[in-house]
Design brief:
This protein has about 300 residues and is α/β, with parallel strands linked by helices. It folds into two domains: about 5-170, 3-Layer(aba) Sandwich (Rossmann fold); about 175-299, Orthogonal Bundle (N-(1-d-carboxylethyl)-l-norvaline Dehydrogenase, domain 2). It has 13 helices and nine strands. The chain has helices at about 15-20, 35-40, 50-55, 70-75, 105-115, 130-135, 145-155, 170-200, 205-210, 220, 245-260, 265-280, 290-299; strands spanning about 5, 25-30, 45, 60-65, 95, 120, 125, 135-140, 160-165. The chain is globular and about 65 Å long.
Length: about 300
């Protein structure tokens, strides 16, 4: 068992840290929200006054933060005074960043770790809050084979599927591609269900038909966007997230930025981003991303 510093206790980070505790690790936590720290303290985590305090003599550091600027600020510092974690470590811990950020920022942190002789993996996740709670996340990892091997057992205490996508930043690219496809087939499933119900079909029966046919996909099977079809889906709970519209829009934005930088045509990804931005403009950023079907109802 390891001593692990966990930085960032949001909807995903908190249950991930809890699973590490359940696995027997010593977990030191830090977050800017006191309530999040208190909840983990009740489960046996050690609350730290700062991220740097949490990382003192830690064998592994795991971060789960909102955006690239937060991850860069944590590890590299926000100014030229070497105030980032990497320049102030007293040992050589494993670095795992499970945030979903741009590949360029991730690669920059990898390079800084390499200069210091630190193993690092960028390891964004898929599966949502339910998978985080149950310890069944999918991790998409970028980094050296050595770093991946070093991180595997720790990740296995939080996830079920652990993939080595490739070199530094590859985990972020894999996550970006996955979530772009997720948005596209969620919108496609919503369009099909809306068209069917407008013609008098029962959405549950139509869903069953498509699941047994060539239109089958994850959105229909695990996360049906039509209210009442799946009892435990966000759609049947007033679109309580889940995975928020704001987060999907962020991920689609990362995909479009990368597509532009690599001159890769992603027309459906661009349309998906436009639709999720419309949801944000309507004040629905905090709703689950499956609420995109509401936009079709309005149109």
């Amino acid at each position: 068992m390891k001593t692990i510093a966990f930085i960032g206790l949001g909807n995903m980070g908190a249950p991930m840290a809890l699973n590490l505790l359940k696995a027997g690790h010593t977990v030191r936590v830090f977050d800017l929200v006191p309530e999040a720290l208190n909840k983990l303290a009740e489960e046996g985590a050690y609350v730290s006054k700062s991220a740097k305090d949490a990382c003192i003599n830690a064998e592994a550091i795991i971060s789960m933060l909102p955006a690239g600027k937060h991850v860069s600020g944590l590890y590299l510092g926000s100014d030229e005074n070497n105030n980032g974690l990497l320049e102030n470590l007293s040992n050589k811990p494993l670095i795992i960043d499970s945030s979903t950020i741009d590949a360029e920022t991730s690669i920059a942190i990898h390079k800084a770790c390499e200069k210091l002789g630190l193993d690092m993996v960028d390891a964004p996740v898929s599966g949502g809050v339910a998978a985080a709670q149950s310890g069944k996340l999918t991790f998409m990892c970028g980094g050296s084979k050595q770093a991946f091997a070093h991180a595997h057992d720790v990740l296995a205490d939080m996830g079920l599927n652990i993939f080595h996508a490739g070199n530094s930043g590859s985990g972020q690219v894999a996550k970006m591609c996955n979530n772009m496809l997720l948005a596209i087939h969620m919108i496609g499933s919503s369009e099909a269900l809306k068209l069917g119900t407008q013609n008098g079909l029962d959405p549950k029966i139509l869903s069953d038909i498509m699941l047994a046919s060539s239109g089958s996909n994850w959105s229909l099977e695990k996360y049906n966007p039509y209210p009442g079809v799946m009892e435990n889906s966000p759609a049947s709970n007033n679109y309580e997230p889940g995975f928020m519209v704001d987060l999907m829009a962020k991920d689609l934005g990362l995909a479009q930025d990368n597509a532009a930088a690599t001159n890769t045509p992603t027309p459906l990804g661009g349309l998906a981003l436009d639709m999720y931005k419309q949801k944000q403009d309507q004040g629905d950023g905090q709703k689950d991303f499956s609420s995109i079907i509401e936009l079709l109802s309005q149109n």
